[in-house]
């Protein structure tokens, strides 16, 4: 069972990604190191599905998480439960509820490429209390969310690079539990002062994801990007 939630680094994680929990201990970090790119990581997830052959997937959306999940998000009362034998079909419906599609979620593109399930809404039958997919109004998506539609791909790469964020430990919030240090697959975080060596950091965001104290923050490194992100362009529309 997984929970309906957005993800500060991966945009969304659901039934497809949930099976990664079957990987024991620090081997998870090893796979992040092997496939730091979200789309390549999706290939690893597809391998797990093909090997394990899971039969049923359940998503708890009664109390969903919006915004900067999976640790720093906010509760959203969606009051929905999704059940399917097809993990990709379940995620396809779930992200449509959030007004996204698979092109917006890099980790799901690998699953679609490998045909581990159905990814076309017109081929998915909705049973239960709905005949059409309901939308979750005012559901907050992560700040990192950027559309990855193919027609805007070249321009999008430049935007993502410009506004790129990096993890940074806020020592005022840090409790010294060292989860960030132990979860880093490339050992880029110092045990003593929690400084991150960005020369070897692969930006898997494991440290940000696993810190329950919200001490690992995502910071914009580009000075100009920080200025632009604070500007309000709405009056020019």
Description:
The chain is an alpha+beta fold. It has two domains: 2-123, no CATH class; 163-236, Alpha-Beta Plaits. It has nine helices and seven strands, in the order ββαααβββαααβααβα. Strand 3 and strand 4 (74-76) form a beta hairpin. The termini are far apart. Residues 147-161 and 233-237 have low confidence and may be disordered.
Quickly give the structural class: alpha+beta
How would you spell out the order of helices and strands? EEHHHEEEHHHEHHEH
Q: What amount of the residues lies in strands? A: 15-25%
State the low-pLDDT regions, or none.
147-161, 233-237
Net shape: globular
Number of helices: 9
How many domains? The number is 2
Radius of gyration: 18 Å
Quick check: average pLDDT? 84
Number of strands: 7
Biggest β-sheet strands, sense, barrel = 5 strands, mixed
Task: State the assembly state of the protein chains.
Answer: single chain
The helicity comes to: 25-40%
Cα distance spanning the termini: 43 Å
Short description:
The chain has 237 residues and is an alpha+beta fold. It contains nine helices and seven strands.
List keywords for this structure.
237 residues, alpha+beta, Alpha-Beta Plaits, 5-stranded mixed beta sheet, globular
Helix and strand layout, with pairings?
Blueprint: E1 2-7, E2 11-13, H1 15-18, H2 27-34, H3 38-52, E3 57-66, E4 74-76, E5 80-84, H4 87-97, H5 106-113, H6 153-162, E6 165-169, H7 179-183, H8 206-210, E7 216-220, H9 223-230
Parallel strand pairs: 1-3
Antiparallel strand pairs: 1-2, 3-4, 3-5, 6-7
